[in-house]
C-alpha cells in the first residue's frame, strides 16, 4: 500500500473505511470479529469503535452469549447516520432518491427542470447538503459512460461529451459514480427479482434485459450478478445490428410489423442472446414493447432452442422502479468509498 505510510490521519481514514465495510457486510459484529475480518489489531479496532460510537456511526446491538468470560458487545451501523443521493436522468426529467447505507430509499421525487441539468442538480444538492450528511452520489445517464463523463448523440447525430460527474465531484468533494441508465435498470430488475426470490444467489444470477423505447432496441446484461460492460462500454446496442445491406434491427422494428412477424423477430433475437451468453432469465420491457405479444414470443422461442440452452422470459413492468432500485444499490455501495486505496 502506497501514499499513506507515515501519514497517521490518512491511515486512520483507511482503517475507518475498512471497519465500516466489515460491519456492513456482516450486519453486526463484535470487536474480535471485526479485527479478524479486517486484519487490524484489536487495540486499533477498539479505538476506532470508540470514536464511531461517539460520532453516532454505530450503535450497541446487544451482547453475545457468554462462553466463560465477559460477554462480547455486538455493533451495528447506524443506518440513518450517512446517506447517498441517487439521480436518474431521463429525457424529460431528473428523478432523485435519498438512500441510507443499507440501500433503503428514504425519499424520492422529481427535480424541477431548468435549462441545464448540472445547474438543476447543484441547486437541489446545495439545499440538501445542509440537512443531511451525504457520503456518495450516484447518477444514471442516457449514454456511454467513461469514468465521470458520458457520451450521447446530439441533435446532429454526433457523439457529444458530458462532464456531469466530474463537475459535481469537484463542487462537493463527494464520491460520484456514473452508470448507464440501462445498466442501472438491468441491475435494479435483478435486485428486485432477488428480493422476490430470496433463495436465488446474487453471485449466480445471469440475466439479460432487452429494452424497447423510441424505436431503439438496447440491452443490459448481468453475469454472475455483475454488469457486463464490454471493451468500450458499448454492450447491448442491439438496435445497431444489421439485418440486411441497408437496415438495422431498429429500422426493422420501427416499420409497423404485424404482431406475428414482430414476435418471430424478438424470439430469434432472444435465441441469439441465449446462444452467445446463455442467461438464465431474459426480461423484456420498455415503453414500446408489445406486452400483448408475450405469449406468441414464448411460442416461437420454445421451438427454437434445446431446453438446456433456453432461458425463462420475464416481463419488466415498471422501468422507473427498476431504474431507481439500481441507482439506490450503486449509490449505497459507494457510501464508504471516500478513501481510495493505492496498491503497489
Task: Describe, in plain words, how this protein is organized in 3D.
- The chain is α/β, with parallel strands linked by helices and 344 residues long.
- It has two domains: 8-77, Arc Repressor Mutant, subunit A; 82-344, ATPase, nucleotide binding domain (Nucleotidyltransferase, domain 5), CATH 3.30.420.
- The chain is built from ten helices and 16 strands.
- It has helices at residues 8-26, 31-38, 42-54, 117-128, 164-172, 181-196, 249-253, 259-277, 294-302, 319-333; strands at 29-30, 58-63, 73-77, 83-89, 94-100, 105-111, 134-141, 144-146, 149-153, 159-162, 176-180, 207-213, 216-223, 226-227, 281-285, 312-316.
- The strands form four sheets. It has a five-stranded mixed beta sheet, with helices on both faces.
- α1 (8-26) crosses α2 (31-38), α6 packs across α10 (319-333) and α8 (259-277) crosses α9 (294-302).
- The longest helix has 19 residues, at 8-26.
- The N and C termini lie close together (6 Å).
Distance between the termini: 6 Å
Query: Main sheet?
Result: 5 strands, mixed
**Helix/sheet category:** alpha/beta
Count of runs of 4 or more consecutive helical residues: 10
The poorly predicted ranges are 1-6, 339-344
Total beta strand runs: 16
From the 3D coordinates, which CATH architecture of the largest domain would you assign? 2-Layer Sandwich
Assigned CATH class of the largest domain: Alpha Beta
Number of structural units classed as domains: 2
Radius of gyration: 23 Å
CATH topology of the largest domain: Nucleotidyltransferase, domain 5
CATH-wise, what's the superfamily of the largest domain?
ATPase, nucleotide binding domain
Percentage of β-strand residues? 25-35%
Q: Report the oligomer.
A: single chain
The percent range for helix content is 25-40%
Strand order of the largest sheet: 6-5-4-7-11
* Overall pLDDT score: 87
| Secondary-structure element series | HEHHEEEEEHEEEEHEHEEEHHEHEH
C-alpha geometry? globular
Amino acid at each position: 500500500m502506497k501514499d499513506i505510510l507515515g501519514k497517521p490521519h490518512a491511515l486512520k481514514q483507511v482503517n475507518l473505511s475498512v471497519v465500516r465495510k466489515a460491519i456492513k457486510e456482516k450486519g453486526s459484529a463484535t470487536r474480535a470479529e471485526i479485527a479478524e475480518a479486517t486484519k487490524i489489531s484489536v487495540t486499533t479496532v477498539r479505538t476506532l469503535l470508540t470514536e464511531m460510537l461517539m460520532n453516532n456511526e454505530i450503535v450497541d446491538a446487544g451482547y453475545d452469549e457468554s462462553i466463560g468470560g465477559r460477554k462480547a458487545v455486538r455493533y451495528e451501523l447506524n443506518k440513518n447516520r450517512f446517506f447517498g443521493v441517487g439521480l436518474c436522468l431521463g429525457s424529460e426529467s431528473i428523478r432523485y432518491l435519498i438512500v441510507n447505507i443499507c440501500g433503503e430509499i428514504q425519499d424520492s421525487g422529481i427535480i424541477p427542470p431548468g435549462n441545464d441539468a448540472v445547474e438543476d442538480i447543484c441547486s437541489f444538492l446545495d439545499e440538501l447538503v445542509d440537512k443531511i450528511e451525504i457520503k456518495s452520489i450516484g447518477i444514471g445517464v442516457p449514454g456511454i459512460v467513461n469514468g465521470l463523463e458520458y457520451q450521447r448523440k446530439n441533435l446532429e447525430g454526433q457523439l457529444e461529451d458530458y462532464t456531469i460527474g466530474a463537475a459535481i465531484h469537484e463542487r462537493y468533494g463527494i464520491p460520484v459514480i456514473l452508470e448507464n441508465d440501462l445498466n442501472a435498470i438491468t441491475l435494479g430488475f435483478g435486485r428486485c427479482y432477488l428480493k422476490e426470490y430470496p433463495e436465488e444467489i446474487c453471485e449466480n444470477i445471469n440475466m439479460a434485459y432487452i429494452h424497447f423505447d423510441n424505436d431503439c432496441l438496447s440491452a443490459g446484461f448481468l453475469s454472475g450478478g455483475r454488469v457486463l460492460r464490454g471493451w468500450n462500454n458499448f454492450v447491448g446496442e442491439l438496435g445497431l445490428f444489421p439485418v440486411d445491406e441497408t437496415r438495422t434491427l431498429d429500422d426493422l422494428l420501427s416499420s409497423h410489423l404485424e404482431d406475428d412477424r414482430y414476435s418471430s423477430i424478438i424470439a430469434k433475437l432472444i435465441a441469439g442472446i441465449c446462444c452467445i451468453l446463455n442467461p438464465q432469465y431474459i426480461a423484456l420491457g420498455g415503453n414500446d414493447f408489445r406486452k400483448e405479444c408475450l405469449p406468441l414470443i414464448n411460442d416461437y422461442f420454445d421451438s427454437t432452442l434445446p431446453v438446456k440452452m433456453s432461458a425463462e422470459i420475464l416481463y419488466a413492468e415498471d422501468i422507473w422502479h427498476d431504474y431507481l432500485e439500481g441507482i439506490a444499490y450503486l449509490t449505497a455501495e459507494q457510501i464508504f468509498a471516500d478513501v481510495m486505496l493505492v496498491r503497489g
